[in-house]
UniProtKB/TrEMBL annotation:
PANTHER family: METALLO-HYDROLASE YHFI-RELATED, ZINC PHOSPHODIESTERASE ELAC PROTEIN 1. This is MBL fold metallo-hydrolase. The keyword Hydrolase applies. InterPro entries: Metallo-B-lactamas (IPR001279), RibonucZ/Hydroxyglut_hydro (IPR036866). Pfam families: Lactamase_B_2. Keywords: Hydrolase. Residues 32-241 form the Metallo-beta-lactamase domain. It comes from Brevibacterium aurantiacum.
Amino acid sequence: MKLTAIGTAGSFPGPNAAASCYLIETEEQSPTRIVLDLGSGALSPLQRAVDTDGLTAVVLSHLHPDHCMDMTGLYVKHCYDPKFFNGNVSDTGSIRTRTNVLAPAGAQERLTRAYYTDPGKSPVAASAHDTDLSHAFDFADLDHGTSHQVGSLQIESFLVDHPVEAYALRITDAKGSVITYSGDSDECDNLVDAARGADLFLCEAAFQEDRDSARGIHLTGKRAGRVAQAADAKSLVLTHIPSWTDCSIVRGEAAREYRGPIELAKPGNSWTV
């Protein structure tokens, strides 16, 4: 599997990075391509990395805007690209293949509310149309302990500690290689289970020790390192670090807890496992 960082900023798009988005691709003749999260600003760099019409699935770890809001833009792209919208008269306004979306329950309603705007006083209000995003997306629910087969990849979801329903994702390819993505989480047993023995643990570290005291929201570098060590992960990549945080401090915290290799995720970086 090849993992490419598309958006790595924590909590909102930073000056040099979009919010959370990561691309995983297999190297088969007919590759599986999945996107993990599609946060604010991420659709732009994603289009430079891959043809979004060829995505096998989008997987949303949770429904905070910095992890899902550019799904509304992807909906527009999929529905109104002239190669679909102006195709055969019989299917005008539809797309040929809907993109699979795995997400916490309620994602379709949440994203529909984000996309739809009441026409209000528009002089052409009669031409407005409702949407539930089903023209473009086929939604399926994540839950703790569930497993979904997406192309040649197995995706397991683990409920983690965050103020909304949120999942860490364990992705296994046909050869048994594993990438674990923490999504947003504080330190918890389920996150350790998700990262157990992973070849690459892509882990958020939005908080900083001795500065951010709230618990049940995000990891510090120290706690991310502690989870990686407990899980015996083979490598650790830190991400979701806000622009007001010094990445070197967070990395240093992690290095005092985790004895394996540590990298910082930056847009465009890629890793193969």
